[in-house]
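Q: A reviewer asked whether we had any structural model of the full assembly, not just the individual parts. We don't, so I'm hoping you can provide one. Inputs are below.
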Amino acid sequence: MSHKSILFEARQIETAVALIRLGARLQVLEAETDLSYERLLRLYKEVAGCSPPKGQLPFSTDWFMTWQPNIHASLFMNIHEYLNKATELEEIDAIIKAYSLYLEQIQAQDLNPQISVTRAWRLVKFMDNKMVTMTPCSKCGGRFVTHPHEIARHFVCGLCNPPARAGKGKASGGLKLH
Ligand SMILES: [Zn+2]
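A: Here is a predicted structure for the entire assembly that you could use as a starting point for your response.
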C-alpha cells in the first residue's frame, strides 16, 4: 500500500469519526467515504458506543418548510453558503464545519438544535439538486430555505410572520438571519 493511500484512508476515517460524533446516520458515512460497510459499522460502534439506528433516512423536502425546522435549516444554510464563499473546503468538510458552527450558535442561545447533521446533509443534497432554494424575505431581507421558484416579492419568512400559536420570543429563539 502506498504512502498516499494510507493518508487518504486516514483522512476518510477522520471524516467518518467527525460525522459520527455529530450524530450522523450510517447512510451518510456510506455516501461520503469509500470505507467498507463493515469498517464503518465497527468505527460507528467504537466512536458512538452503540449500534447505529436502523431505518430509512428522512426523504421529504416538506419537513424543512415547517416553521421551526425552517428557521434552523435556514440558519444552517446561511452558515454553509458563507463557508463555501469564504473557503475552499470539500463539500463534506463544509457540511461538518457548518453544522458545528450551527450547534455553537444554537447552544450559545440556550436553544435545542432542531436539525440533525443527517438532515443538514440531506438539505445540502436537496439544494445541489435544486429541490429547494434560498429566497430572501421581503420584510427582513434574511435568506430562507424555500421550495424552488418561490416569488421573492411576496415571500415573508417564519420569523417575520410566525404562526399564531408560536408567539414571539423564546420559541423563535431570537434567531436572526441577517
Ligand atoms: Zn423576514
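A: Points you may want to mention in the reply: The chain is about 50% helix and 5% strand. The chain has a mean pLDDT of 91.
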